[in-house]
Structures are given as structure tokens and as C-alpha cells.
Design goal:
The chain is mainly beta and about 140 residues long. The chain has 1 helix and 9 strands; from the N terminus they run αβββββββββ. The structure holds copper (II) ion (CU). Copper (II) ion binds near residues 80, 121 and 129.
């Protein structure tokens, strides 16, 4: 027979309330994903992909400095992609991220201006995800 002290019981209650969600992808660990480009410990910016939005969707970066994004698709059963174009329309990054998956991408901006990113996935005759609002920008100085 195990005897629990009050603190242990409190801790277990907390875990039940939070749905044991302390792992990656949990509500608990997503708190960092709302930050824009401030330099994190790891220098990796997490971008959450949902139907139909990127969070954050407005970012700032510096010329010549590598950018690392962790793309997290949190949509249920909906695949997304991350297409990044330079200010003059050259495709720089193309990454598919399946439902529930995470993909890390890296690129180094070599010119200033506004880079656009978006998802062009589409189901049958429905509008594509970009048209539904799934797009964002990186302003490079
Ligand atoms: Cu999408």
C-alpha cells in the first residue's frame, strides 16, 4: 500500500487537469511558439501550422544571418507545406509537413526586402490554403 504525501497528491491533480500534457507538442510546451524573431536560446524559431494560419506570421531577420525554423503541423489530418519566396519571387524553400509532423528548415537571406511564405495545399475544388489566409512574411534588413 502506497502512502502519498499532500504535495504528491497535488502534483497528480495538476497532471490530471493538464491532461499529462508536458511532452513536445503539448499546450504546455507551445508557449514559446508565439514569440517572433527574438533570439531564442537555440536560435530556432518555431512556426505553428494550422488550418489556415502560420503562427507567428510576421517575422524580422538580418541579411547574412542563418534562419532556422521548426515547422510544426498541428492540424488534424491536414497536410501543409511551407513555400518561401525571395523578394524578387525566387523559390528558396519548399517543405512538406504532414499532419502532426515537425520539419526543420534553414536558409540565409542574402538580400533585403520582404520574403513571403505560404502554403499552397488544396483539397479538390476548394480554395488553396494561402487563399484561406495561410501566409506570412519575413522582413529582412
Ligand atoms: Cu496548408
Amino acid at each position: 500500500m502506497t502512502h502519498y504525501r499532500p504535495l504528491e497528491i497535488l502534483c497528480m491533480v495538476c497532471m490530471v487537469i493538464s491532461g499529462f500534457s508536458f511532452g513536445p507538442g503539448s499546450a504546455w510546451s507551445q508557449d514559446t511558439s508565439h514569440s517572433t524573431v527574438e533570439k531564442s536560446r537555440s536560435e530556432i524559431t518555431t512556426i505553428t501550422m494550422e488550418s489556415y494560419a502560420f503562427t507567428p506570421h510576421t517575422l524580422i531577420a538580418e541579411i547574412g544571418k542563418p534562419i532556422h525554423f521548426l515547422l510544426k503541423n498541428e492540424s488534424f489530418l491536414v497536410p501543409h507545406n511551407f513555400l518561401l519566396d525571395s523578394p524578387d519571387g525566387v523559390r528558396l524553400v519548399e517543405a512538406n509537413v504532414d499532419s502532426g509532423d515537425e520539419v526543420t528548415i534553414q536558409f540565409t537571406p542574402t538580400q533585403s526586402g520582404v520574403y513571403s511564405f505560404y502554403c499552397d495545399k488544396q483539397l479538390l475544388f476548394f480554395p488553396n490554403h494561402r487563399e484561406e489566409g495561410m501566409e506570412g512574411s519575413i522582413t529582412v534588413h
